[in-house]
Amino acid sequence: MKEALWWETQEDGRILCTLCPRYCKIGADQAGFCYIRKNINGKLYSLGYGKSTGFAIDPIEKKPLNHFLPGTGILSFGTAGCNLGCRFCQNWSISKAKLDDAQSLTATPEEVVQLALRHNVPSIAFTYNDPVIWGEFVIDISRVARECGLKSVMVTAGYITPEARSEVYRYIDAANVDLKGFTERFYHKLTFSHLDPVLDTLKWLKNETDVWFEITNLMIPGENDDQEETKQMCEWILENLGDSIPLHFTAFHPDFKMTDKPKTPASTLTGARRIALSIGIKYCYVGNVFDDEGQTTYCPACGRILIRRSWHDLLEYNLSADHCPCGQQIPGYFRMPRKTTPRRGRSMLQLH
Ligand code: SF4
């Protein structure tokens, strides 16, 4: 078992976990809200260290990242548990599982990196559940990955404390951050967390790191799809993060404790994209629906198609390094995609 980082003992003997803004106070033999950080004999342990609920090679567009190594595969895995309590979780069989239930595999950081190298992918994603809660494992894998020339990606809700984030992100190259809504009501009522720490993480990523990041907003009918809310969110992004952070509006499907809502209509996503573009966000995409226009990267200077996608497939690629043929630089991390990556389902990859 791996002793955790980011905790202190309180006067009453309980442990205060300082990894995420939930700041759980954890009594003897208890675990925190995320299930996988436990007080054992007065020390906090990371039960998720060295555990995986299965490995897959995903298209990097599935994370989603559209401006980071487009067209490549990415070794993807998660552990169990989560530090948020989203009633609409789209991945709840993992995020709501305890490690014992999740039939996890044991893997060292070196083995994870070797697996990526063996499958000839240039990057590893910490995903499926929120990697913040297994930050110690993230640090060790991403350090070894960097030594071996691989990139590391966080797929996260951005719910992490200032005390922990600079360490967790030390060797991280890219992230997709869920901005789940733009009201405290939504965060509090439907995710059991708060909006401000997520906004703070986004500003920190922009202002104090070199991490490439994109933002995803999962749109739920009647909960966070109000056009005025979308407008306010886009204005905040523009003002605080600039016009070049790619923004993805993605469709919700009824799941977990929110089965009473319909799927997100494609028109909602198209409308949100239109709002974002009209406000001045240069790269805006839609996801989880078929919409070739909404998944294509256009040059903001000349309007040319730079990367044409259909769902997660690349159909056309016209970038030269990170430039449009007209000379306009496109923000991100690009290199010419190679057709090497088979599409595989989760847990089809064997560790050894
Ligand atoms: S990481 Fe887990 S144990 Fe720590 S504060 Fe967050 S939910 Fe609680």
Report on the structure:
This protein is α/β, with parallel strands linked by helices and 352 residues long. Helices cover 24% and strands 22% of the residues. An eight-stranded mixed beta sheet has the order 8-9-11-12-13-14-15-16. It has a three-stranded antiparallel beta sheet with strand order 1-6-5, with no helix packed on it. Helix 2 (109-118) crosses helix 3 and helix 7 crosses helix 8. The chain is globular and about 65 Å long. The chain starts with a strand and ends in a 35-residue tail after the last strand.
Q: Please write the string of helix (H) and strand (E) elements.
A: EEEEEEEEEHEHEHEHEHHEHEHEEEE
Distinct ligands, ions and cofactors found in the model: iron/sulfur cluster
* Shape designation: globular
Low-confidence stretches: 340-344
Number of strands: 19
Name the beta content range: 15-25%
Strand order of the largest sheet: 8-9-11-12-13-14-15-16
Q: Helix count, per DSSP?
A: 8
Structural class category: alpha/beta
